[in-house]
Design brief:
mainly alpha; 2 helices
């Protein structure tokens, strides 16, 4: 090989090496971006999972403490029965008072 051929070969090899280094750096950059994106998605997934757990706990608490129509109807019936009893006792007390005060 001549000196010119060897120099040309060395230049070609150096250019290939530089090209390879540039492409390798690009690939490393892309991998770093993918890793960062993956971490971001994992954090978002964890946040969403926590939010779902929180909402599930709130829903469970609301279901435990909810007032149903049947519960309200039952409470209303008890209130009416209690008021009826109080009215009956007041009537008996007034009748006894009138009987006691009449000559």
């Amino acid at each position: 090989m001549t000196e010119d051929g060897a120099f040309t070969l060395e230049l070609a090899i150096a250019e290939l090496r530089r090209d390879t280094d540039v492409r390798l750096a690009n690939q490393e950059g892309r991998l770093a971006l993918l890793a960062q994106s993956d971490e971001l998605h994992e954090r978002r997934a964890d946040d969403q999972a926590r939010l779902i757990e929180d909402l599930d706990a709130r829903l469970s608490a609301a279901e435990r403490e909810q007032v149903t129509r049947a519960h309200l109807d039952n409470r209303f019936r008890h209130t009416i029965a209690l008021l009826s009893l109080i009215a009956a006792m007041a009537s008996v007390a007034v009748a006894a008072l009138i009987a006691f005060l009449s000559p």
